[in-house]
Write a structure and sequence with these properties.
FAD/NAD(P)-binding domain; elongated; 5-stranded parallel beta sheet; 2 domains; single chain; binds flavin-adenine dinucleotide
Length: 311
């Protein structure tokens, strides 16, 4: 079967590109190496989103679900847990090779975001052994934390917002290695007005417990303090596996895909959008990725159909 368009990545950018492609009735397939929804679903589903126009406040998981439902309701085919490996040339078309199959298509949009990201780890004793047993990298069910002593590690929006989500039901503290948070001022203000204990200029040096976390050792200057803790949620950023990028056959800039203002890459028929693209002034935000996706989809449509109005 020949697709008009294949989109690699079902994050907000890929799903928006799919929605736009379907308004043009392009036969569209989206493949995602994990689950649809991108970072919103896999990294911070419970985090509040207050900068997506039209929603004063929603949570990331809910926004991801709306985007997935929207793309599916428009007749878009989504394959989850299928990793794209390479885009090859095939008799005037392109061939997407994945870890499950190969698909022929007229055009490709790359929307692989941060790639196959993994949360960064502290690298302290006890962390690996107690992962899932009190050590977490995304927020567990909030009710499971009710009445518990919960420590968040990190100073960015995500760590602070997660702490705010549970501080009404848990004894919550935040550990940050610097003396100032790097989160948005509005979020820092909410933390300052909350019951969250702030442990600044400090680092977690060990996580203790037999079958489950029971305490965490925190270092401030030369002083060590062991605090009784039931759950420690680490949010110090992500690292990604960027090796897939070599398979796309496009020009890169600083490890990201170089695009022009039409979201065209250096390769004919291959477009890109979202966190994976690089240009001056790029701002890695959902709404920006969605805007680029609309452009990428429109450019792909013009490339595939060559409509009279685009000549
Ligand atoms: C903790 C945190 C909080 C954030 N908060 C906000 C916020 O409040 N507001 C905001 O606007 N932005 C926020 N962002 C940024 C926002 O999440 C990103 O800008 C957005 O997710 C980018 O969307 P994307 O579709 O480009 O990529 P992603 O969301 O990264 O999705 C890419 C998808 O591609 C898939 N993929 C990767 N490689 C392959 C492959 N080889 N084959 C198939 N599939 C592949 C991945 O599995 C993933 O599902 C936040 C980011 C983080 C990390």
């Amino acid at each position: 079967m020949l697709y008009d368009l294949i989109i690699i990545g079902a994050g907000p950018a890929g799903l928006t590109a799919a929605i736009y492609a379907r308004t043009r009735k392009l036969k569209t397939l989206v493949v995602d190496a994990t689950e649809a929804g991108g970072q919103l679903a896999s990294l911070y589903p419970e985090k509040g989103i207050d900068n997506y126009p039209g929603y004063v406040m929603t949570d990331a998981g809910q926004l991801a679900t709306h985007l997935i439902n929207h793309a599916q309701s428009m007749g878009c085919e989504i394959h989850e847990r299928e990793r794209a490996l390479a885009v090859e040339d095939k008799s005037g078309h392109l061939l997407l090779r994945t870890d499950r199959d190969s698909y022929e298509t007229k055009a490709v949009i790359i929307a692989t975001g941060m790639g196959l990201f993994k949360p960064k780890r502290l690298g302290v004793p006890g962390e690996d052994r107690l992962e899932g047993k009190g050590v977490y990298y995304k927020l567990p069910e909030r009710d499971a934390l009710a009445g518990k002593k919960v420590m968040f590690v990190g100073g960015g929006n995500s760590a602070l917002e997660m702490a705010l989500l549970v501080c009404d039901r848990s004894d919550t503290c935040l550990v940050h290695r610097r003396d100032k948070f790097r989160a948005d001022e509005a979020i820092v203000e909410k933390v300052q007005m909350s019951s969250i204990e702030r442990i600044m200029s400090s680092q977690v040096v060990e996580i203790k417990g037999d079958d489950h976390v029971t305490s965490v050792v925190v270092k401030k200057g030369d002083e060590l303090e062991e605090r009784p803790i039931d759950a420690v949620i680490i949010n110090i950023g992500t690292s990604s596996e960027a090796q897939d990028m070599e398979g796309w056959g496009v020009e890169l800039e600083g490890g990201l895909i170089k695009v022009d203002t039409d979201m065209c890459t250096s390769r004919r028929g291959v477009f890109a959008c979202g966190d994976v693209v690089a240009y001056k002034g790029k701002y890695k935000q959902i709404v920006v990725g969605c805007g680029e996706a609309a452009i990428a989809s429109n450019s792909a449509y013009k490339y595939i159909k060559e409509p009279y109005w685009a000549k």
